[in-house]
Amino acid sequence: MQKDQYRIQTTSYYSSIFTLSSTLKCSYQVLFGFAYSYEGADMPLACLTDFEAHARERLSKSSWDYIEGGADEGITRDDNVAAFKNTSMCKTGQESQEHQSPRIRLRPRYLRDVSEVDLRTTIQGEEISAPICIAPTGFHCLAWPDGEMSTARAAQAAGTCYITSSYASCSLEDIVTTAPRGLRWFQLYVHPERQLNKQLIQRVEALGFRALVITVDVPILGNRRQDIRNQLNLMMNLMQASIHSTKERNSIPHLQMSPISTSLCWNDLSWFQSMTRLPIILKGILTKEDAELAVKHNVHGIIVSNHGGRQLDGVAASIDALTEVVAAVKGKIEVYLDGGVRTGNDVLKALALGAKCVFLGRPILWGLAYKGEHGVKEVLNILKNELHISMALTGCRSVTEISRDLIQFSRL
């Protein structure tokens, strides 16, 4: 009896979190009042912030706040972007004030043949068309009806990597079927029950995902004030929407308990390594100490990330933490960056400071909200074109020529 009950609970968990049905997709529109139709823009969108403006118009306030919200005062969320632009933002009350911060300046080299510029690179031995990939974000059906399936098709068309979230609103099988040739990694929020983690990892491995990305910066959820003000309990809203459209009703109390482990520690990594052949990437590392421990525990990569400023407010911007992490790993594992990237210049700066590639979070959702799969393609293409220009104007003919020599730090 206990085994049967556990089997039902296991199936319910996967069905509710990782395999949301097409019926549930329709429920998003009822719950959040989304309108997905769009009319052609008066003029072409020229940069990623243009997509931001369009997405804000198309999404309801609660869903926009959920996507854009940061933890507490939003200092880290804003600083992620500002740090690339050579200022840091310090909020006092309702005002934002700039304070002195090292400026990241580019040092271009000229009189080089840049008639051909090659953006291709590799991550974990797999070639991608440019060092611009898609970060894991949940519930893409909030932005577009096809959700993660549209995102996966866009990533496949762009020849880049897409990290699928544990909280995808489409089934993993549907994502793989719609983009069978795409390079996919899977992001895992570690569940307290090891058996659930094992079964899920075996599932994604069988589906052809090429790496396991373990998020380490969510032992508990950050304090997101806008969601509280909007009385948005996203998980329970989704479960209530599906309760009459699925037979797996036991999922509700199971999810109310503890979907993410609060006890995950370094020694647990050996268990994950023992039961999968997939390379393991840690997402959320920000310090020298943790980077050194990651190398010691034989992980294959690090994503320098502060969760888009949605977890602990007041930590370093991702680009500011990057140098410390890169120096700590001493080239032994690959380092990637997530957070604040909005332009090709931002990508170039991250690569010059040691990132193997960057991952985009919110801009992908902006593109998705604007025009679905085609909007995501446009976001990726604009950023690739900007990177091409930035590389040519600094004398870099390939990604391998981008180095620390391109960067100069100075004070305001």
UniProtKB/TrEMBL annotation:
Superkingdom, taxonomy of origin: Eukaryota
Principal place of residence: other
An example Gene Ontology biological process: fatty acid alpha-oxidation
EC class (word): oxidoreductase
Keywords, comma-separated and alphabetical: Flavoprotein, FMN, Oxidoreductase, Peroxisome
Family per similarity comment: Belongs to the FMN-dependent alpha-hydroxy acid dehydrogenase family.
Protein name, entry field: (S)-2-hydroxy-acid oxidase
Species of origin: Oryctolagus cuniculus
Origin organism lineage: Eukaryota, Metazoa, Chordata, Craniata, Vertebrata
Gene field: HAO2
